[in-house]
Amino acid sequence: MQFLKSVICAGSLLVSSAAMAGPILIINGANQTTEVDTTSALTDNLKALHEAVGNTVTIVNDLLGDLSAYSQIWDVRFFNAAALDSSEQNAYSDYLVNGGGLFLMGENHYFMERNNSVLSLIASLGGGDLGFNSCSDGTQVVHAPFTGPNDVSEVNYAMSGCFNNKGSGQWITSRADGSVGSGIAFAAGSLANAMAGALTTILDVNFMMNDFDLPNSQQLTKNLIAFVGEQTENPSSPVPAPASVLILATGLAALRLRRR
């Protein structure tokens, strides 16, 4: 009986692990970026970290017409040419209304067209009237749950922008006094006009490049991936039922042989 329990437990772990994997869309704007090396480094790093936890990654330059196939979207464009227009904001709103998980990159005060479009989207979603603060931070405190599962308590941004408040969301990172912060998360249930969706955003691109403030920045990126994954309501690529049956059948066969 103990052997059978072990087989079932192992099979359950396999199913659970696969069920957490999902189809991920990374939008990097490589055809428009003003900083080619930055875009390349952050894309390569983000892709590797997603694949390390079993996600399947698709990389595109621009927003696709149909986003329904993806459980998460990571829009890591940060330059002004990638300011979200009304059609893109509408597409993201629909995606979040239907339970998607979205990360949006912003930057410092040199990229205000992009930043303002992110602020506009958040306001339209009911996340609050957020403004921009040209903080150019600096070390910020990392707030739970983004302190785990990979341990990190602070991150030193190269030259970030800041939000002047967190609206209906929660700080990902902020100054110690909580006055301003560079990262905000809106968990499912936090956005009045998209209750099923989850939105995260950070006003700094360098932390995701696997180049600045290591290992803290890398730990934070991993924890962001874990958070968005947990918030996503439509996990993909579970082990098909026949495979689950095969796992159990193999265990039962082994048990039968053991009893002979």
Features:
nine-stranded mixed beta sheet, 260 residues, 2 domains, 37% helix, two-stranded antiparallel ribbon, Rossmann fold, 11 strands
Protein architecture, described:
By secondary structure, the chain is an alpha/beta fold. It contains six helices and eleven strands. The strands form two sheets. Strands 2-1-3-4-11-10-9-6-7 form a nine-stranded mixed sheet, with helices on both faces. A two-stranded antiparallel sheet has the order 5-8. Helix 1 runs antiparallel to helix 6 (241-259). The protein is globular and about 40 Å long.
What's this model, at a glance?
It contains six helices and eleven strands.
CATH H-tier superfamily of the largest domain: Class I glutamine amidotransferase (GATase) domain
Radius of gyration: 20 Å
Count of DSSP strands: 11
- Give the overall shape: globular
Distance from N terminus to C terminus (CA atoms, Å) equals 15 Å
Q: What is the oligomeric state here?
A: single chain
Order of helices and strands: HEHEEHEHEEEEEEEHH
What is the mean pLDDT? 87
Class of secondary structure makeup: alpha/beta
CATH level 1 class label of the largest domain: Alpha Beta
- Quickly give the CATH architecture of the largest domain: 3-Layer(aba) Sandwich
| Uncertain regions spanning at least 5 consecutive residues | 1-19, 234-260
DSSP helix count? 6
